[in-house]
Specification:
mainly beta; 5% helix; eight-stranded antiparallel beta barrel; elongated
């Protein structure tokens, strides 16, 4: 068995999320300082593993005040918990290009198992002859499971920030 290490190409990737604000609209964000790798075993995605690490202080929602609040002790508490990590533990084929990726998400000092839906391209060659792998991941978690509990009630009912966070991750990997 041959294992090839692939590193994320950050110029062609986005580690994104979205969350409901005021119960009716989505606010999108991403991490801008991150690294990830894919250890691909014999070009068999199911036998492979993925790892990811983001600097929590790199959270970006295109609003400085909101980003500073997310970095505070009310949310990520980046001084105490500087990184968000994910390490896969199991990859299972669900269709021709669709997979389930199970792993451990460590955030805010809490580690929990999550499942993500994945669309895997396989190894492709770009127009310049470079081998690439594309991987899209989606999923959702309840932020309170990681002790990210801050919220405020709305006068008309409901909460300012949803508990459900949706991941929207588009990645491209290159051989290390």
């Amino acid at each position: 068995m041959e294992t090839k290490k692939w590193n994320i190409d950050t110029t062609h990737s986005l580690i994104g999320f979205k969350i409901k604000h005021m119960m009716f609209t989505n606010v999108r964000g991403s991490f801008t300082d991150y690294q990830a790798s894919l250890n691909l075993v014999d070009d068999n995605f199911e036998a492979s593993s993925i790892s990811f690490e983001a600097q929590a202080a790199s959270v970006n929602t295109n609003n400085t005040d909101r980003d500073n609040h997310l970095k505070s002790a009310d949310f990520f508490d980046v001084e105490k918990y500087p990184t968000v990590t994910f390490t896969s533990t199991k990859i299972e084929k669900k269709g021709e290009t669709h997979y389930s990726v199970e792993g451990t998400l460590n955030m805010h000092g809490v580690s929990k198992t999550i499942k993500l839906n994945a669309e895997y391209s396989g190894v492709i060659i770009d127009p310049w002859g470079n081998a690439k792998v594309a991987l899209a991941l989606t999923g959702k978690v309840n932020r309170k499971d990681w002790d990210l509990n801050w919220n405020t009630a709305l006068e008309a009912g409901g909460l300012l920030v949803s508990e459900e966070v949706n991941f929207d991750i588009e990645t491209q990997f290159v051989l290390a």
